[in-house]
Amino acid sequence: MRPHRALVVINARSRRGSNDVTAALEVLRSSGMEVLALRLDSPVEVEAAIREHRALVDLVVIGGGDGTMNAAAEALLATGLPLGILPLGTANDLARVLAIPPDPVAAARIVVVGKRRRIDLGRANDKLFFNIATMGLSARLARAMDRRTKRRFGALAYAITLARIGLGQPFHATIRTGSETVAVKAIQIAVGNGRYHGGGIVVHEEAAIDDQLLHLYALEPHSPWQLLRKLPWLLRGRHSAIAGVVTLTAPAIDVLTDRMLPVNTDGELTTHTPVHFTVLPQAIEVFAPA
Known about the structure:
Enzyme class: transferase
EC number: 2.7.1.-
GO molecular function, one term: kinase activity
Pfam families: DAGK_cat (PF00781), YegS_C (PF19279)
Radius of gyration: 19 Å
Shape: elongated
Distance between the termini: 24 Å
Protein name: Lipid kinase
Helix content: 25-40%
């Protein structure tokens, strides 16, 4: 039986994408894999590379952050190729939810072991996402975040940027599931497929990336001091225990807003409201610890 053939795609513009990953590639090759390694300058090139080499490889290993994984989602779904992850980004929330270590060599060993699991994908309008889709505050953060700050400060860059831009103006939204309709005034609405976002913030305490559900929370207007007091609960995803936070769980959710708002999926601005969210159960296969 021939060895597995792996396409390894490194996003050179991710936070640690310029690091030397030779040792991680050697882990793959020493297991008997044939490795085709590409270093690309943009997440946009990742999808094209996967589609171009789909008939030549048995698996894809992507080195980058959550934005890079997001850029690859359509190609992974279309080709059916299993995904290995080398976490080289800022937040690395998908790697976190899959318990993949941040060290690229250790992450490569997980691919070599070969344990796989199927995970869900979320869809916001026509855009796929792994972890989270947001509108309001997080989308403003994504637009305001500069690459230099992310490279220098990592996950702390979110707090630094938030201190610079403030909480922003609230908006009115109507949220619909198959069984209920809720009207809210919010500074942020987040819809999670995975468990983490923003470098380890829990989407919802019961969320899992394979539960075939979407978990929504809407954060009503708060002062910075109120948010600071509630931060421990927000970070742990205990939104239902906090006054001023609306939560919903469903396999499909619609959000309509009083003005068109950009929607951030996995850290990238990709669509806008009104937005129809759905979950694609067990959509792709990933290499992860047992």
